[in-house]
Amino acid sequence: MSAKLIDGRAVAKRLKTQTAALVDEVRLAGGSVRLDAVMVGDPSAGAIYARSQETRCQEVGIEYRLHALGTDATQEDVEGLIGRLNRDGAVTGILLNLPLPEGIDTPAVQYRIDPYKDVEGVNPSNIGLLFYDSPIMAPCTALAVMEILTEAGVDPKGMNACVVGIGPIAGRPIALFLQHEMATVTACHEATRDLAAHTSQADLLVVAVGVSGLIKAEHVKRGAVVIDVGINRVEEGGETKIVGDVDFEGVVGVAGAITPVPGGVGPVTVAMLLRSAVDAACRQRGPRRIEV
Amino acid sequence: MSAKLIDGRAVAKRLKTQTAALVDEVRLAGGSVRLDAVMVGDPSAGAIYARSQETRCQEVGIEYRLHALGTDATQEDVEGLIGRLNRDGAVTGILLNLPLPEGIDTPAVQYRIDPYKDVEGVNPSNIGLLFYDSPIMAPCTALAVMEILTEAGVDPKGMNACVVGIGPIAGRPIALFLQHEMATVTACHEATRDLAAHTSQADLLVVAVGVSGLIKAEHVKRGAVVIDVGINRVEEGGETKIVGDVDFEGVVGVAGAITPVPGGVGPVTVAMLLRSAVDAACRQRGPRRIEV
Lengths: 292, 292
Prior knowledge:
The structure is a homodimer. Chain A is α/β, with parallel strands linked by helices. Chain A contains 10 helices and 11 strands. Chain A has 2 domains: 28-119, Rossmann fold, CATH 3.40.50; 139-268, 3-Layer(aba) Sandwich (Rossmann fold). In chain A, helix 6 crosses helix 7 (171-180). The radius of gyration of chain A is 19 Å and the shape is globular. At the A-B interface, helix 4, helix 5 and strand 6 of A face helix 4, helix 5 and strand 6 of B.
């Protein structure tokens, strides 16, 4: 028996079609959708990523602007730029590329992003509102995982869920979402003593570590839903391949459903970011619960 | 064999002595420590609680002021009052009593509290900073549990920890703290299918539900550390008794260490609130990472 494949590309395609239609609606209403990205540090490293962001925005009709600061940028420089983007009515969404250079207080910078323009939901205020199950904008990877579960007809309520990896961008927000959906969530990480003891009890296993081949067949309960958030570049026979944290070949024979890498969580996360950018634009003129 | 009793009153006494000394230091330096409590709704229900807050503050030399608004107070009224307390330099700490009347957006009100005066660490921004493991002020019950663990010589790293109850005031922040300390944390709640299956695997069991007698001997692993956050009023033979969520008589024979109720987490939480009030006062004139 082989697990049902969850097709992230199909989910992403559907989301992007909806998003493009929403962008048109905003335009027809006289508005616009614009995403301003902030990049701090080595410009050569960020350039490829920025071009990819721009292309993806253009595909759904979102205007994209890049603001690059050098490695010598100070806390005040970065916060000042974000403040200007907050006040600029033409900017409907702000994306802060990480990591920031050493010496910069990252959460303090994220705190400056207008919570209503915070398309990645990284402002501590937005994280706290998510914690209170009262979100305005939320982290895209977690939104993507929840969208995939909905798409696959998985209701986390009462499930034993195991999230491996507790990073602030993926694992930690995912665990919070699953908890709000009333799964019984166990969060594992590098200090977990017996990883397999936890993962093998999970009806729903989400892996977000960044170590290829970490999760093998023996880690997985038969019939479990396995969501692989990892994106790892590995060299194989002189070629670079993208693989997840899950040993797909081994686990596909045990799991009930599984997301592949590539073609799983990755494209849905990108699609969710674009969706959040439109959501932000739609809310720009609406009532606000909190003010910066 | 009987579990080691963790004496919360002794921990609280030591904390209060330190706090009173800190208040004196602040005074000698020309400052003051003042805690302003906001209470919205039925004044008769809140009066007893407010008097108790005042007494506790006075015990360590903290000035206490109560601001009561009626049940007809609007979102703007409550946020406006908090804004005035933020701007008042004499106010060094703000405490917002919950629950707020229906129709009030509680997280939006909490968001208005200056993060540096937020003695209970309930502002979504403070919650988010805690989530990023970069806190300014944090929820007092979670701080109390961590203090108790330190006092009892328990290092959560690598432990299987189970937190029962995922409320926003106690269970959810406690789970976050334990995760930061690298415990493998499982969060259980009313939708958990087999509670005993999870709790009986836990080296560290924290219970914060509000149901007396919920956790019995059969739920507990032999030798486990059991922290009972519950405070429940029960009638027994015509008398009102305070008990926790843990069936103390049964569990004391199985656990390795246990906090009693009363005399466990409760007094330490109060002491932690007072400590946070002094911390806030000490930071009033210092540098700030974030601004309201």
